[in-house]
Amino acid sequence: MKYYFATFLLTWNSLFPVDLNNLCIPDSSSEIYEKIEVLPYFCQGWNTYEHIFDPLLAENKFKTVIEVGVFLGKWTTYVAKQLPPGSKFFAIDRWESTEELRRSVDNDWLTNMYHQFLSNMIHSGLTDIVIPVKMDSLEAAKKFKELNIKADLIYIDAAHDFVSVYRDLNAWFPMLAENGMFCGDDWHWGGVQTAVKGFAEKKGFKIFIDGNFWKLKTNTSQ
User: Fold this and answer.
1) Residue range of the domain that includes 187
2) Residue 47 covered by a domain
3) Separation of first and last alpha carbons in the chain
4) Mean pLDDT per 10-residue interval, the chain, length 222 residues
């Protein structure tokens, strides 16, 4: 991890975390966490797939993680708490209300998602591990590619329509480290299934499915 993370730190101001609305770019992760008034802990979320990840996390398989689509950080917290010392977890999200979220989440929580996420990370003691990247998924992927950041685990859980998912798959797969794991949630969404199947067919990969969890089986993946 060290070979690229030094480069990341040198270019921190161009990446972490970028607020596309206000163009507010803090100097460090500690600064963004220190600036907020901490809200009470509230971490609504969905699947974490402990039966899949617990054995892998116990073996310290992952030291650099990228999650695309974070919401309030339920999966973020579950994984980050089990990472070995010195690990980094990049949390990618715009933290903005969408029509899809408005149909499934109490609107009261959609006005301060980012603030709540940061508060949750503080409550969980993860501010030294979790790096929020407040950007559009594709824009963040471009930055990560420029910095040659590779991850042992990439988890795709952002939009669920075919076009968005297919773009995320193509944008983030190049950041997967050798022997890494490329996976995601929400297999029950038609757009997710179609996008993952199309991407896997194009790459010649097989797909592992467990409930709503999916994983690409590459030649070197876990």
Assistant:
1) 2-38+53-217
2) no
3) 18
4) 40 44 43 88 86 95 96 96 95 81 58 92 96 95 94 96 97 96 96 98 96 89 64
Domain at 153, CATH number: 3.40.50.150
Which strands form 213-217's sheet, in the order they lie side by side? 130-134, 88-93, 64-68, 151-156, 176-184, 213-217, 206-210
* Lookup result for tokens 């590619």: 145
Number of domains in the chain: 1
For residue 59, is it within any domain? yes
Indicate the pTM of the whole model.
0.85
Contact at 8 Å (CB) between 176 and 149? no
What is the reported pLDDT for 29?
Answer: 65
Looking at residue 220, its pLDDT comes to: 66
Q: What is the pLDDT of residue 21?
A: 39
